[in-house]
Structure formats: C-alpha cells, structure tokens
C-alpha cells in the first residue's frame, strides 16, 4: 500500500498546522500506521520561516503526550501541490490563499 502524504496549511505555520501535523503523526504511530502516512505542515506566509512552533502549541502537544521536537516552520513551496496527496487548509482564508496562488506558491 502506498504512503499517503498529507500537508496541513495555516497562515504562519507555528500553531494550527503544526498541531495537526504532529497529532496525525502521533495517532498514526499509535495505530501502527506510520508506514502509511507522511505528515507535514506549511504556512501561506513566510513570516515565521525557520522558527519553532508557538510555545502554547508545543505545551498543548506535550500535555497530550505528543513530542514536538525537530520542528521548523516554513512557507508552502511551489512543488508541494505535486508532492502531497492531500492539502488541508486550516481555515477559509488559508484555502482562498491557496486557491488564489493557482497552485504556484512562491
């Protein structure tokens, strides 16, 4: 069975999308499905490129037993739509930004 590649997208890639990325990765691992799911996240803006996730996000993940190490925020890339099987926008504004970019983020 092929691995499904899923990308979560929010504005800055420091709160919502990394939370979704790490929760899904954790859930897949708990169910023995890690070999079937690849998760990642990105932002529609590059405001926080290279930064760690928000401390509140990290604390919430930790409170639920989810390690949040090794994260570095990034902006969505031009090649992402071709690489991922599913791109999930975290809100309507993020979706509109993705649609307006004509699948060619900078």
From TrEMBL:
Residues 4-104 form the Phosphotyrosine protein phosphatase I domain. The keyword Zinc does not apply. Keywords: Hydrolase, Protein phosphatase. Transmembrane segments: none annotated. The active site is at residues 10, 16. One of its GO terms (molecular function) is protein tyrosine phosphatase activity. Its EC number is 3.1.3.48. InterPro entries: LMW_PTPase (IPR050438), Ptyr_pPase (IPR023485), Ptyr_pPase_sf (IPR036196), Tyr_phospatase_low_mol_wt (IPR017867). It holds the Pfam family LMWPc. Belongs to the low molecular weight phosphotyrosine protein phosphatase family. This is protein-tyrosine-phosphatase. It comes from Neisseria elongata subsp. glycolytica ATCC 29315. The lineage of its organism: Bacteria, Pseudomonadati, Pseudomonadota, Betaproteobacteria, Neisseriales.
